# Entry
Amino acid sequence: MSEHRKPTIARADGTVLSIEELEVDFTTDAGIVAAVKGVSFDVAAGEVVAVVGESGSGKSVTARTVLGLLAETATARGAVVLRGNNMLTLSGSELRAVRGEDVAMVFQEPSTALNPVYTVGWQIIEGIRAHGKVSKKEAKARAIDVLRKVGIPEPEKRVNYYPHQFSGGQKQRVIIAAALALNPALIVADEPTTALDVTVQAEILELLREVRDEFNTGIVLITHNMGVVADLADRVVVMYQGKVVETAPSLELFANPREDYTKALLAAVPHLGRNSASEGMVERAKPDKPLLVEATNLNITYPGRMGTPAFTAVNNVSLQIRAGEVYGLVGESGSGKTTIGRAIAGLNKTTGGSLKVLGYEMLNFKERSFKKLRQDIGFVFQDPAASFNPQLSIGECVAEPLIVHGHGTAFEARKRVDELLEAVQLPKAFADRFPHELSGGQRQRASLARALALDPKLLIADEPTSALDVSVQAKVLELFKELQQELGFAALFISHDLAVVDMLSTWVGVLYRGELVEEGIGSQVMGSPAHPYTKRLIASLPVPDPIEQEARRIAFLKAS
Amino acid sequence: MSTTTAPLRPGKRPLVSRLPIVSHLRMSAGLQRGMLVAGLLLSGIFVLVAILAPLLAPFGYAQISDAAGDFPTQAPPGGRFLWGTTVGGYDVLSRTLWGAQTAILVIIIAVVFSLFLGVFLGLLSGYLGGWLDRVLVVLADAIYAFPSLLLAIVMSIVISKGQSSLWGGIMAAAISITVVFIPQYFRVIRAETVRLKAEPFVESAKVVGASTPRIMFKHVFRNATRTLPLIFTLNASEALLTLAGLGFLGFGIEPTKAAEWGYDLNRAMSDATSGIWWTGVFPGLAIVLTVLGLTLVGESMNDLADPRLRLRRKIKRTAGKGTA
# Structure
């Protein structure tokens, strides 16, 4: 490949990136860990190549080598050839020249990728002026130009705004604008929509598609979300444990995956409308069972800081959960779904209306009088890594509720812990391990065991699988479903993932900005939503099937 | 972490190699290892000398005569008095060796006192919050605002009227140092507690229904104290400096009750101008080396505890190169 500089405005063409036999090792306290073991693939101009894989598969490390962004403890071998330059052998100043001009990066978390003390215009201009002599005025004009291209309204004015004045989706647009500013041949997008809500995700994916079509930019898309892959990717590279398992055009991969791993991965992805828990139901289940949770016109406000008004997280919500029923609560970030779950568990104070949990009015909450009822409520937290005390063994953690509520001695508790671990399909020997010695899925099983230790009547699961990989998520959800049917506890299942909620819960509530906009039987809410917000939410959810997704996308764009 | 396969269970290493300093030594490399080893060596000598002072020192700390008669005053090093004698006729070598014993006692007592009080108050203040937290934080800040030596002087006057016996002096010095150090432990533990309070595992203990003391001591305490060995070593050297400062200013322990480096330095001031170097150099060196040793241990533990600062042994492979 010959060394050539591209003119700034021209469209890129040919192969922009080719990775050959890339190997990356990390030096850790436990010795050398190979993160990437011989990965090869190419990216052509105007092509979106999705690199998918579970956490630890080496996909992010591979992407970062393309920009020469590796930790000091890493060593890379092989070749990463970007428009004739081997990124592994370039010096610091050569790398700086290539970054921005030939390759740019879009990060996962838009709120931390921008410097909060500079205006977004300044940050884009800085990138432009770092490559070649451009006057301030001209650079600013170009910054305004790219901001307009990524769909920021009133770019002349907003170029002088600070990052906090933009919403999450707009920040991601600004980052894409900064990446586009020098018209690079390749953009590496590392989980660009993971931190965003689905409706915003759909817009960003659309923007990336436009970028590809308009500028003929090659895009390396790192993601674990098969829906996003189906929506955007032309070609898919499936990675597992540092190796490439399969490379195929997107349509072919989803239609006939060749490798077993790919098949299993695709099968584990929850698909909206398939295996719904409420299939064929016409009325709400268990209408004659006693009410466990009854919220009437519930209000929860967080006091504002000095000078700012109080923030209403939950506004006038009424819902009921009966014994043995799984209630699914869906909503985007900031919709108040977690606040409701925490209020039911007595972790948040309610400020208005009425919330009765097991007959106890939470408005007059006193820890002392509520403590007795706590044994009837289990709670599964979102992040299994953080919800265990790192200093205690799994056995001690699971036994904690038994000991706190005085159910027998440590010896008797141990017997129950063994039973519980068996119930969540963990070997008994795991009781002696420490939380960090378990994988994410195993930890979440243990968390479920702890929540069920006292045979609670009500289980609150706050996004229990959103920190897990899809294949693990599928197993944990299956287990949850089995245990619920076997033990018959009622559950409040909180999630942002509509497909997951539909799999588990028969009755679904949709929250939007603190208000319950729609409630109904799961399959009906998902199948024929009534409220415009629910419609938009469901339409913007990418499904893991390129053909179906394309039809949905066109319908979604028409509607909005 | 890959979630599809169970991670191999790392064999539990023996208790000895999991102790703070030993584990630090095992994972150190390069310059950091050198610093740690040098620090450990100096500190080790200090501790050994303190323990073995009665055997090592040729004379007692307050001895000015023996069977052969009174000791000469201001005798240069050599002969019976390897490091010479002072203006009062004390043997410099003996007083320097005995001084280690006083120093280590004061360090241990001061650090232990401030550790217990500081940790307890920090935990209470951080977890319970409210007015108690506000009052304690203001108090800690007020103590911070005083120069520590001034505070130590005031305390030693209050406690022992300025002059005292061996234990009286040691306690006075230790307690005055304690008062200065409590805010440091308090601050660190309080900050950790406030952070841990919002962690899901503490919330999960709350949901389970665990009582406040149980959450505080079982769940928060064990996680909040991981940085303590660090502050411990760094404070030890500061305690020694404060003790020497007190002694130098004349608020220390009387020479007949115990040997104390700061006091000896004070006495050596007038000698320095008349060319008598040995009375000042040896106690001074003892202070410098001990503080250096303790600080090196503390600093290298600090670096080793942070995976981003820790140096690792280089990989042997040379093909290709890492890009930073």
Notes: DSSP finds twelve helices and two strands in chain B. Residues 1-11, 316-324 of chain B have pLDDT under 50 and may be disordered.
